[in-house]
Design goal:
The chain has a single domain, classed as de novo design (two linked rop proteins) (Up-down Bundle), CATH 1.20.1440.60. It has 4 helices and no strands. Helix 1 packs antiparallel against helix 4.
Length: about 120
C-alpha cells in the first residue's frame, strides 16, 4: 500500500460544491414540464450527480487514477453546462437561475483543474 495516498472526499471543496450544484439542479428540475421527465430532466439529473460521484469514487484510488476520475467529473460539469443552455433556450429556467448555476459550474471547473494539477 505504500505510495497510495487516499483522500477523504467529504472534506474536498470540489465535492462539496458538486453536492451544492446537484441540489440546485434538483430544485429546478421539479419546475420542468412533465414531457421532459425522461429527456432533458433525466440527463441533467445524471450529469449533476456524476460530478461529485466520480470525485467520491476516485478518492479511493491512486493519485493517477483519481486524476482520471476528476476528468470524468469535469466532463459531466461541461455536459451539465450545455444542458443548462438548452433549458434556458426552452425557457425552462430564467437568466438569473442559468447564470447562478453556470457560475457555480465555472467555479467547480477551476477548482477541480487546480486540484487535479496538484495530484500530478
Amino acid at each position: 500500500m505504500s505510495g497510495k495516498k487516499r483522500h477523504n472526499y467529504k472534506n474536498l471543496k470540489i465535492w462539496l460544491l458538486g453536492i451544492e450544484i446537484a441540489k440546485d439542479i434538483s430544485d429546478i428540475l421539479v419546475l420542468f414540464p412533465k414531457h421532459e421527465q425522461y429527456d432533458l430532466s433525466s440527463q441533467m439529473n445524471k450529469s449533476s450527480i456524476s460530478i461529485q460521484s466520480n470525485i467520491a469514487e476516485g478518492s479511493s484510488r491512486t493519485d493517477k487514477s483519481f486524476s482520471h476520475f476528476i476528468d470524468i467529473s469535469l466532463g459531466s460539469s461541461f455536459e451539465l453546462a450545455t444542458q443548462l443552455i438548452i433549458a434556458r433556450h426552452k425557457n425552462y429556467i430564467d437568466d438569473i437561475t442559468h447564470q447562478t448555476i453556470e457560475n457555480k459550474l465555472e467555479e467547480f471547473q477551476r477548482m477541480a483543474m487546480g486540484f487535479q494539477n496538484g495530484l500530478q
